[in-house]
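Tokens help. Consider this.
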Amino acid sequence: MPCNAMEMSMGNIKQKPFPEIWNSPEAAKVREAVKQCDKNCWMIGSVSPAMKKSLKIPALWVIRNKIKIALGKEADIGL
């Protein structure tokens, strides 16, 4: 889901691979809706500051999954 205010979803990463979801017609519809949204949400960018407070967690997730993918394994979807 693009945000807490929109009742749209690109898909479920537990059911389909991320690239399939990201490139789907549903994702295109969500991106278009986000472009046209006039709600001026206060939540925009709220994830970035939270990640910066504890950069170690997302950084380790990225490194671990890059190694897994390089070894031909599937990436973890959770932190």
